[in-house]
Structure prediction request, 972 residues.
Amino acid sequence: MTKPVLELQDLRVYFNTRRGIVKAADGINLQLYPGERFGLVGESGSGKTTTALAILRMIKPPGRIVGGRVILDNDIDLLSLTDEQMRQVRLKRIAMIPQGAMNSLNPVLRIKEQMILTMRTHGAEGSNGHMLKRVEGLLASVGLQPNVANLYPHELSGGMKQRVCIAMAISMRPQVILADEPTSALDVVVQRRIMQTLRTLQEQLGAAVILVGHDMGLMAQFVDRLGVMYGGKLVEVGTVEEIFTDPKHPYTQLLISSIPSLHRKRNFQTIPGMPLSLHEPPSGCLFHPRCPQAMAHCSQIVPREIEVTPGRKVLCLLYDEELTPAAQREVVDDTAAS
Amino acid sequence: MTPPLLEARNLRKVYTKRSGFFSRPDENVALDNFSFTIGGDDPVFIAIAGESGSGKTTLAQMLLGFTRPTSGEVLYRGQNIHHLNADSQKQFRQEVQAVFQDPFAVYNPFYRIDHILHTPIRKFNLASSRKEAENMILEALATVGLRPEDTLGRYPHQLSGGQRQRITVARTLLLRPRLVIADEPVSMVDASLRATILESMYKVHQDYGISFLYITHDLTTAYQVSDSIVILYRGIVAEAGDIEAVIKNPQHPYTQELVNSIPMPSLGQNWIASDDSMGTEAVDNVMHQVSKGCKYATRCPHVMERCRQNQPPLYQVGQGQVAACYLYDETPALTGDNLTDTLHRRPDFRQ
Amino acid sequence: MIGNIFYHLRTNLRLTAGLVMFSLIVLFMLLGPMMVDVRQARPLSTFPSQPPGPDYPFGTDDQGRNLFAAAVVGVPMTLRVGLIAGAVGVGVGTILGFLSGYLGGRVDTLIRGTVDTLLTVPGLVVLISIASIIREAISVEIMALVVALLAWMWPTRTIRAQVLSMREQPYVQMAKLNGVGTWEIIWRELMPNLLPYLAVSFVGSVSAAILASIGLEAIGLGPQNEPTVGMTIYWSIQFNSLIRGLWWWWGVPIFFIVFLFVSLFLISAGLDQIANPRLRRVA
Prediction:
């Protein structure tokens, strides 16, 4: 039984806002296996980017990681490391391609300077000549000509800039790559090329990828397993096949039927009800006010994670065979605390 | 025979950029020799699709009169829109309206959202009393599925992007225009809210007989709402016609590449693995200008020598479908303004 | 928008602190005449060179002026110079800045060219030249106008820059689609959003004007018979108050200058904080 390369246990990230505490990520349990492609999908505000940032401990105040563990290689809990140790982990073992990465390239540095600087900051050593060779090799692996190294970011197209960001992300041969909406600003043809490049590199490196996004079509074509997030909770996990052919959570079901596609015209279906407000979350299950299959006790009991089949998880009372005393106690605790 | 509502005649827009004092200026042909007509009597829903650099936004800006063409003209009821007298200008604005891309920036942050609804009523004298104006607004909001208690009296930052965009659609309804030019109305809106905005646009089209020109880079949403489509590539029309035909049976190699690049939310599409590309460099290198020949030649898997010499005309590749590609030179080429006819053909079946 | 005022006062420390300080000065100006006979601001009205004490809270100068009375009379004058010059500067600057920024073309080239050229002229030299020519006839109001001559150029530039960026905003295009004409766009769409910048510009202009007038007065080019802050400094220099140990003579005006400028600066910084987040707000 392969051990996960990255495991999130009960990860909680809360934000202290003027209007109260916002639970951006609340009890995330996730296993990422070596070399696999995992998609984290959800609407904006669902907590997917927060989760990705929390893995790298890049949460800024007023947010903070209030609980849980992030275990790398079955070995180290990243949340227990010092700042210096964490810096050694970033890029070397876990790399990130953040949202809008191509716009955060330093406009006054040439690509090679930027890349060498980044690598050195995270522990790469070697002479300038040696580093330049590495840069050219990396650029080639993402399909860019060596002359790109001498260019400035504004001389590159959007697709080329994003390839540079990918090159930087793989420069230290990480075990895990976190990609947060890496193609959202790109044209659909360029997007395909970029994702193909990413996949090739990922397979060569044997690295695992977490793709964060909201495009279900992209997820279906790129990832092996999918995690659906809603209101800071991971409401369903499964393989892409399982989720698309047999979605279990009512939210997932509505999500899938509302995806616009070229198979059906005038599909104006959406998820009914008002969008979730994390400042005033509903009691019990966060989705119950909008859920077409809500039962009476869904407003009172917080659903716990049910493993329907191995690896197939749902956070929904519909699949909870027994409402154990533990689940009921959680209700009392929640109401007492609020 | 009244002149058509809006006509684009040989529209061409060239942007020149001087990279230095002594070097020759860089010319970028954003749109080249584009002509078509919107009659205004029969409501149509036409999509103008293209990627960045295709010229679609330039086209929208020229049709609305915010950018002047380098050559060619835009005619409102037979008159050049830049030579209209004050009355005709007012009429033009009333009959041709728009929905823009950024659902936040179209609101003046100083005012509540009511400002954007009352101003056109006031300027176009659409209501004779305050009460009548309020009723018009309530009706318009209801059509797009918004409740007045959720929206009126609020500031733009207090509403979601989806609500703000739907209010702009409601605004167009107040004016009862003939044509609404919607420039990427959903691209800056959260994915989960897009369907409601598209639905509101479609409803306005169905219930009030208003034509739409839907400008987008997203073929999927274009397919959802439109009847016909024009595919733009680097300023020229690559393919156009009935949307079912163009999407399900694309003839131009570019359209084929576009449609194949869309990741489907289903299993079985060979999206990630297949490599039918010309290499990444050709795709990325949009900076490179092509002066003669077909603009798609550098990326085309079927490129022939004549493609590099001349820009192919639009050939009639099927009933209600045209494509600008020498692969189809057996079929008759389009003459005159038959592009409009191609786009105005109503399909025999409706879902 | 009005309801916002209390929110801003509560959270914007700089603005509140600045306003509090400024209102103290206003209080001083209002209550002062009730606490002292203002005629004592003239020379030869009291015992000369008295240090601050119970009879003369700010002491007296070498020429027999009660410095407390002098402050009560002089501070409002200095403020008036600043306010008039600042208002003229921002007023002219707004009109020119709008015309230049919104209309563009030749109007813009003309206005911008003039402003840019005039900005290269060393302002202090111009002021000194003008002031020394009209030396005898100078009054507080004329002082204000002289300073105002140079106060309109920076506001023109900054307001023009603001208008240029606002002109391209989608809400301006939307207004055009709504049938709104050019003048109405300027007045009803652009101007309200410019108010925070105008406020900051105004406070900045007032500060600069006060500084310029004090500078001119301190070298003797001000209204000779008025006990303005700058003139008091001038006289204190002329009569060697520093060497003679009459510290209150130069100390009182300097205290007022510092207090006034700190308050104006805080107000300006506070307004800046309001002005910027509004434009930085993201959808």
Notes: The two ends of chain A are 41 Å apart (CA to CA). Chain A has one domain: 6-246.
